[in-house]
Amino acid sequence: QSDSESWDSPAEINFDFQTARINTTQSGDLMYDLAFWDGLTGMNGATRLSGYYQAHAGIFGSDSSVDDTIRLEDYKYSKFLWDNSISLYLKPLQGVPTMEQSSLKYSVDANVYTYNLADGSTVDDREYIGSWISGEDDFNHHEASATAIWKPGYFSVTSGISGNIPPLSRRYSLSTGVGYARSGWTADVSQQTDYENDAWNLQPIVMSGSWTGWKDEVTISQTARYDTDDVRWVSAETLLGFWGFETKFVANYGTTYTWSGTTWTEDPKESFAPSSLTFSYRREFDPKPAWKNRIRTNTRLDTSWNINLRQPTENILGFKWTQVLFIHQFLDLEISFSSTNKSMYLYFPKWRNQLGIPNESNFFQDLMKSFNVFNPEDRRQSQFNMDRIDVSLVHHLRSWDLTVEYSGWPALNSTADGYFWKSELDVFMKWNALPMFNQRTKLQDSSWSVDSFEQDS
Question: Rounded to an integer, what distance in angstroms lies between the CA atom of residue 351 and that of residue 344?
Answer without folding.
Answer: 10
